[in-house]
Amino acid sequence: MVSHAFKSLIFFITMTVTLFACxxxxxxxxxxxxxxxxxxxxxxxxYSGGLTTIEQAKQRIGDKITICPTIFSDFxxxxxxxVYKMEVEKVEKEEGVVPPKNSVFYGFMPERDFIHxxxxxxxxxxxxxxxxxxxxxxxxxxxxxxxxxxxxDKIASCQ
Length: 159
Known about the structure:
Elements: H1 2-23, E1 37-46, H2 54-58, E2 64-67, E3 72-73, E4 78-79, E5 83-90, E6 114-121, E7 131-137, E8 140-145, E9 148-156
Antiparallel strand pairs: 1-2, 1-9, 2-3, 3-4, 5-6, 6-7, 7-8, 8-9
């Protein structure tokens, strides 16, 4: 009888600890919610050639970007309703491995081991993303477009 009560007590404690650990997790169920909001282009950086001139790229500073559940818009796209996916790309640092042409390839934040992307799709069944943004910090994203990195800061929530 004592043995059965002891086992029940251990089971109860184990389940209670497990439930509190799961409930206290800081990992959101939908990570995309962290990035919903209104953003503004705050800086540009040239990384390769393109048709856009430095003057044209500088004119984008101050442009607004919206990444909300019902609408996505930036200086290239306007999608209602958008479909978002979070993707992670491992940064290859091994000698002899040819990496994809990402921001690390062009020398931007080369110390990273992973690049986190927000991919925007026009429809749920779209095979390829329409555009994507790279997460470069808390409330900071970046879009690469026509030879420039456009750095954006979150300025407001979607509400």
